[in-house]
TrEMBL record:
Protein name per Swiss-Prot or TrEMBL: ATPase AAA
Highest taxon above the source species: Bacteria
InterPro entries to which the protein is assigned, alphabetical: AAA+_ATPase (IPR003593), AAA_assoc_2 (IPR032423), AAA_ATPase_RarA/MGS1/WRNIP1 (IPR051314), ATPase_AAA_core (IPR003959), DNA_pol3_clamp-load_cplx_C (IPR008921), MgsA_C (IPR021886), P-loop_NTPase (IPR027417)
CDD domains on file: AAA, HLD_clamp_RarA
Family stated for the protein in its record: Belongs to the AAA ATPase family. RarA/MGS1/WRNIP1 subfamily.
One Pfam family cited in the UniProt record for this chain: AAA_assoc_2
Native species: Promicromonospora citrea
Residues covered by the AAA+ ATPase domain: 62-187
GO BP: any one term: DNA-templated DNA replication
UniProt entry tagged with the keyword ATP-binding: yes
Lineage, highest ranks first: Bacteria, Bacillati, Actinomycetota, Actinomycetes, Micrococcales
This protein's record includes keyword Methyltransferase: no
GO molecular function: ATP binding; ATP hydrolysis activity; DNA binding; enzyme activator activity; single-stranded DNA helicase activity
């Protein structure tokens, strides 16, 4: 349990104060609503969260329990912090990883005593609430019901599945959106110049900034952690250079006024900070499209090694894994097709798994899908078939639906001849009824031409027999002989 209102960690106003030794991400936590990035939809004037944060927001019109759901590094802890600091309340944090029912009850009882003696209201922040057991979550219910604490719970998993229904029904669920690149860029820029952060002690080169943003992947905490490590290394090298002049240290230089120039954090410094080499890859430029194109073409060409190489380049450069997964789904349908129908199942499962577990473990799931697709037999017959059908439709070759196939379930339909002569497939040998299904203007058209590769070879053999039956002049279902199309 962490009580941020312990005397050793509070400022003169009685609110939590980060120490100089605190991590950069902690020191740069927004001190006001105006500094929050990317969650404007939750902080509009009059919104429940804004009423809870702003001074005086502890009234009965503000929610007594809030669940913040969103990806890592989007500001869940920051919002909980602001609920306490801006409104002047006491802040207590519990981690669902380490806290038990006893810890929850202790916090609640302490909050009740403070309220009874006229003390400050308590904001109880529970991080990773989805890790709380049912009994732990149940222990929170009385305090929420009676407003003994203002509960702010954070989770990266869907609360509908991870939070008990009684607690969920008593809470306001707020969904945080992933941070855009520009939001993280602004936070990094502020951390470089702000006195709470690096205070202008270094400058961040443009190339280093772009690489840092790619590595962060929309996670503000990760971006600031990388920045702090890179800046610390540069400043440490500069200190060594000034005292010992060791080889390899940052070179000394002077500005126009003769003073020492501000050290620069370059691409190599960011690489060294995260121990990851920068990959020539621009998510918004030509390199992005070139690498993605080569990735898909390598899968189509069945070169599994090349496909894994391009996957690795995208992963190392911080490409959104959901984008990669979407491309794999398209490739499974377009290039593998019916030659191996299970490829699409693998691609869809990979997309769902990546969404569930995230990175870096998601790379393993993506690699498995890439190997399956690249080594599978290939057929684009279904892709070509639907495009050929679309070409006819767009050219106006549609015709009318044959009368025997029209809906005959509404009143008066039979009088119009709808359904007359329809042959029910299950009454015929092998459940294939010989009759015309296409409109007259398209009778005999062929759109799907299966290949002889993989599973589609079996489809081709079956389809040949089916088309033979459909085109026959058989007039009744009595005879149960004929070609086997099972």
């Amino acid at each position: 349990m962490v009580d941020l209102f312990d005397a050793a960690t509070t400022d003169t106003a009685g609110t939590p104060a980060a120490r100089a030794s605190s991590p950069l991400a902690v020191r740069m936590r927004p001190a006001s609503i105006d500094e929050i990035a990317g969650q404007e939809h939750l902080l509009e004037p009059g919104s429940p969260l804004r009423r809870l944060i702003e001074p005086g927001g502890s009234g009965r019109t503000a929610p007594s329990s809030v669940i913040l759901w969103g990806p890592p590094g989007t500001g869940k802890t920051t919002l909980a912090y602001l609920v306490a600091t801006v409104s002047g309340r006491r802040f207590v944090e519990l981690s669902a990883v380490t806290a038990g029912v006893k810890d929850v009850r202790q916090v609640v009882e302490d909050a009740r005593r403070r309220l009874a003696t006229g003390g400050d209201e308590t904001v109880l922040f529970v991080d990773e609430v989805h890790r709380f057991s049912k009994s732990q979550q149940d222990a929170l219910l009385p305090s929420v019901e009676n407003r003994w604490v203002t509960l702010v719970a954070a989770t990266t998993e869907n609360p509908s599945f991870s939070v008990n229904s009684p607690l969920l029904s008593r809470s306001l669920l707020l969904t945080l959106r992933p941070l855009e690149t520009e939001h993280v860029r602004e936070l990094v820029r502020r951390a470089v110049t702000d006195e709470r952060g690096l205070g202008g002690s270094v400058e961040l080169d443009d190339e280093a900034t772009e690489h840092l943003l790619r590595l962060a992947g929309g996670d503000a905490r990760k971006a600031l952690t990388i920045l702090e490590a890179a800046a610390g290394a540069v400043l440490s090298d500069g200190s060594v250079a000034a005292t010992d002049g060791e080889a390899g240290a940052a070179p000394e230089s002077e500005g126009e006024d003769g003073e020492a120039a501000v050290p620069h954090v370059g691409l190599a410094d960011v690489e060294r900070a995260v121990d990851v080499a920068a990959v020539r890859y621009d998510r918004d430029g030509d390199q992005h499209y070139d690498v993605v194109s080569a990735f898909i073409k390598s899968i189509r060409g069945s070169d599994v090694d090349a496909a894994l190489h391009y996957l690795a380049r995208m992963v190392a450069a911080g490409e959104d894994p959901r984008f990669i997964a979407r491309r794999l789904i398209i490739s499974a349908a377009e290039d593998v097709g019916m030659a191996d129908p299970s490829a699409l199942q693998t691609a869809v499962a990979a997309a769902q798994a990546v969404q569930l577990i995230g990175m870096p473990e998601g790379r393993i799931v993506l690699a498995e899908a890439v190997v399956h697709l690249a080594t599978a037999p290939k057929s684009n017959a279904a892709y070509l078939g639907v495009d050929a059908a679309l070409a006819d439709v767009r050219a106006g070759r549609v015709g009318t639906v044959p009368h025997h196939l029209r809906d005959a379930h509404y009143a008066g339909a039979k009088a119009l001849g709808h359904g007359a002569g329809y042959r029910y497939a299950h009454d015929w040998p092998h459940a294939v009824a010989p009759q015309q299904y296409l409109p007259d203007v398209l009778a005999g058209s062929r759109y799907y031409d299966p290949s002889d590769r993989g599973y589609e070879r079996q489809v081709a053999e079956r389809l040949e027999r089916i088309r033979g039956i459909l085109g026959s002049e058989d007039t009744g279902p009595a005879a149960r002989s004929g070609p086997d199309v099972r």
